[in-house]
Amino acid sequence: MSKNKAVLTGEHFLSGDLACAEGALAAGCRFFAGYPITPATEIAERMSLRLPQVGGVYIQMEDELASMAAVIGASYAGVKAMTATSGPGFSLMQENIGLAVMTEAPCVLVNVMRGGPSTGQPTKPGQQDVMQARWGSHGDYEIIALSPNSVQEAFDLTIEAFNLSEAYRVPAFLLMDETVAHMWEKVVIPPAENIKLVNRKKPKVPPEKYVPFKPDSEDLVPPMACFGEGYRFHATGLTHDEFGVPKTDSPEIQFQLVSRLCEKIRRNADKIVKVEKTMLDDAEVAVIAYGVLSRSALSAVKKAREKGIKAGLLRLVTIWPFPEKHIRELADRVKGIVVPELNYGQIVREVQRIAGKVPVVFLPKLGEDLHKPAEILKALEEIKR
Amino acid sequence: MMAKQEEMGHPLEDFLRKSRMPHIWCPGCGNGIILHSFLQAVADLEMDLDKTVVVSGIGCMGRAAGYVNMDSFHTTHGRAIAFATGVKLAKPELTVVVLSGDGDLFAIGGNHFIHAARRNIDIKVICANNFNYGMTGGQQGPTTPLEAYTTTSPYGNIEHPFNLVHLAAASGATYVARWTALHVRRLTASIKKMLQKKGFGFIEVISPCPEIFGRRNKMRTGLEMMEWFKKVSVIENFSDPAKAEVSRDRIVVGEFVDTEKPTFEEILYETIKKVQEKG
User: Fold this and answer.
1) Are A79 and B91 an interchain contact pair (Cβ–Cβ within 8 Å)?
2) Tell me: the pLDDT tens digits for B196-252?
3) Partner of B90 for a Cys bridge, out of A46, A79, B230, B251, CB 3.0 to 4.6 A?
């Protein structure tokens, strides 16, 4: 073990769940509140073992409602905090995801996606929560969601999720397929000094001049004081003005607040969004995929190239905010797009919305294993014709 | 005379966010008395306002957090204790107080209450029990007395209510008391005692709600409700909380539990220390 117990610099053989936990620790997470659920339990187990080693707090709450509430409480106390769950728990967390959005509490939520609806398929992979991640809590808002396709990325993107969450004061989700969570691969953990960390902006004014929800004009994000620092501020889930005072009757303040909560993400989307483009420069047909399916898709694209089909892959590393610009650029150049998903049609609807007249072929998959490259290849061949 | 008093200001005004006044509570409501008792206790103990956090849920008493001149958070319905758990564990040096109502703490938030009490986490809960959901216009809740009239029990309440002090004691709280809003001095002394103790503390305050609950139950004014409390309250300190009834004819008040056991955060941080020492 290296000297820095939070950052286990070196090469490791880990599952996605374990790599995610290590990524959180490397990102500075020192608080985990959760509730056991397949297939995310290993994250809680690892955190219960590792957090005490680095002076952090692990607590198993009575349910997911409480877990998310405790995470927001810890965040307001000034500690980087997270939880991890799967579909049924994610549903219960929606209530306080809304509270985290409204009170602009930086926090990270890992959702290891299994098959739904309801209890569904606890041990099978799914991508059925991508729309719930976007729209699951009531009201208008924006969040950030990332989708790893390898164990290394489970580590890297967990750090990224913390950084984005701190930068924009917004809940950031890691939407991980069960397959990535449970597969084992090599992970390289860099030296701590090579890991870029972002911390929330702190107020630069004394307490009597602090306006807790007054945003900075350049990024629309308000600096954040924390409990116990002498600022004596109030936060509420009610519609509030810049002072944190409830103003539930004012249409102006409702518009100002809700539009800012959305715009702080939308206007910064170019800085947030990450995609990976493979063989797209001359592509005539393309696959848009995310999570583990991008690996099947890459294989299919390579096979298509061997057959003389000019195919390429656009992988969505960021799912929310949606990489609209990249999809629009792609749709301007290709004759058809194939979208495989482990659901009955979610992200494909976003792709169709942006792609306009370009044909979009959807390949759903429910309850089985992943798409085989041959299935995606066949769709590429058909769309080429 | 009035002008002079205004110049003098309220004796607890340093503890309130003056910009938030006037409060939203109805005439005759007990919430102001409860908040006053809490702030008086904070003042008497000379607590550090920079290190005290007040958390509340949703409902009439839920607005209390917004009125105090301390760090404060108004959570979602029922989740005040769960949020407070995160605050206390992340920064154990803070004093964390939950001010909320009976519906918020014991219906939608009941699970969080019993588990926080079980853990004996150092959170202090003061519950205004007004027998109904006041904010939404007076619906039946988990503390509504059997046969009482509310907007959703128009034929009389058919459910048995919780005995909150019995529930708290059985769940593991190390300080448990019940007072009415009439027992102001005893309530303030009780809050002071709870704030000076470690561990999960719970004080139920039976609170008049004449505008919403009382008027449907033949008590149209705050005074009438207070007279009811005066007539039927009996102080039975350290009696069996299981037998501490709240009924039309008898309200048992007093301290019921005052014990010591290691708190959750003490055990947690001791464990962290041991793990770190082992390397």
Assistant:
1) yes
2) 999 999 999 999 999 999 999 999 999 999 999 999 999 999 999 999 999 999 999
3) A79
Q: Is B249 exposed, middle or buried (0-12, 13-18, 19+ CB in 10 A)?
A: exposed
Q: What confidence score (pLDDT) does residue B2 get?
A: 52
Q: What residue spans define the domains of chain A?
A: 10-194, 275-384
Distance CA B212, CA A226 (A): 37
Contact state of A232 with B86 under an 8 Å Cβ cutoff: no
| Residue ranges in chain B assigned as alpha helix (H) | 2-8, 31-44, 64-67, 80-90, 102-103, 110-119, 164-171, 184-196, 222-232, 264-278
Of B87, B111, B268, the CB nearest to A227: B87
Closest partner CB to A73 (pick from B49, B66, B87): B87
Q: Which residues of chain A neighbour B48 with C-beta distances below 8 Å?
A: none
Neighbours of A262 (CB within 10 A): 16
Q: B76 and A66 in contact by Cβ < 8 A?
A: no
Q: What is the pTM assigned to this prediction? A: 0.97
Provide the CATH number for the domain formed by B16-278 in this structure.
3.40.50.970
- pLDDT < 70 positions in chain A: 1-3
A76 phi and psi angles, rounded to 5 deg: -70, -20
**Partners of residue B88 in chain A, C-beta under 8 Å:** 73
ipTM above 0.85, yes or no: yes
- CB-nearest partner of B275 from A53, A69, A103: A53
The pLDDT, as a whole number, for residue A1 is 43
8 Å CB contact of B90 and A77: yes
DSSP reduced 3-state for B150: strand
- Cβ distance B276 to A52 less than 8 Å, yes or no, reads yes
The answer to whether domain A275-384 has CATH 3.40.190.10 is no
**What class has domain A10-194?**
alpha beta
Element at B205 (helix H, strand E): strand B201-206
